[in-house]
Amino acid sequence: MKSRIFPLILFALICSALAGAYLWKTRSSGTPTRAAAAESESLVTVKKKKEAPPAHRLPDLNESYCLDPHATTCATGWPSIDPTGRVLSDAAGEIRALRVMRNIIRENPTWTSEQVQDALITIIYSEKRRTRFKDSFEWVKTALTNFIKEQPATVFSDSEKTTLLDRLAVIELQLPPPAAVYADAMDLVTKNTVYYERTPQGQMRLRLGGAYLLNTSSWYNMIFTLGHEMAHAIDPCETYQADITPKIYGELVACFVDAGWVAPDRSECGPEEQVSEVFADWIASELMGKALKVATKDYSSTDRTRAAINATRDLCDQASTEDSLDLSLHQQPRIRIGDIMGKNPSVRHTLKCEPKKNDSRYCRFNTLPSALSSKETTR
Ligand SMILES: [Zn+2]
Fold first, then answer.
1. Which of 10, 28, 37, 353 is the most buried (most CB within 10 A)?
2. CA of 278 to the centre of ligand 1 (A)
3. CA of 262 to the centre of ligand 1 (A)
4. Residue numbers of the domain that contains 232
């Protein structure tokens, strides 16, 4: 019995094992049911959809500037180029100026320091560069004079207007050679510094460091920079010192504080004030609105945006520049570039930026309370 039953049991076991294996294989990898097929098809579809490239495109330079003027300006590489020229970093200009000086000394080892200075000034303040900056200075002077002239009686009285215009008329652009012109500030020849000053004798002048001349051939940067400096001749604290502050400046400063451009505790003239620097940026931005309008008619949208970028490209890292004369008084680049320049309605209009909700709140003479209330009464 044993010998007959054992092969039968063995046969039965092998059969059931084979059947089990077949069934397991069918269940796990056999023909899918309709629902399973549909599910797997939909997975393929989903997968395909995910792999498809995104439909949106990256914003172009103009859109990007309109959206975030500060980030877009400061993300532009060096040199920053527009159709009129370029802007280099502050450090690049100073290095170039020092290299020029080193070459002069190498080639003329017996020269006195005066001879070296003279040669350095002749090279850096070349006729071509002097002409370029003098022309920009005259453009700014005319534009700022017209800006003051065109303000209505609700902004400036006749005598206030005359006082401001008289001050603008006598500002000089002081450029060497001769070297003696900068005799009291010889360091300036290799620096990137640009400044306005009123001498004890009452002379009002703008001076330009040699490194700035080497750095800058962009007309837009010259206009903003010279516009900023010239505005200091009529800024609220400069006129306060001369006791000729126009009445409307009080409202203007209040607007600067409301806009967040000037800290409330730094809104009065004194050692910590922020008013004069913000005023100078604000005037420079108004002038830039005019400059962009006149000069960019035939530009592409990108070139027009490059022009706007170059106006303030060199302000991005100014907060960390030691050479700035009144460093603590300048606002952060985010406010200078992003708000004061970047939100200027004329600039935005020329760049065809979509109007923003708060555009009407930008500080302008005609949006100040006394200008608005006089409009009300004449209605
Ligand atoms: Zn300034």
1. 353
2. 8
3. 14
4. 69-88+126-174+216-374
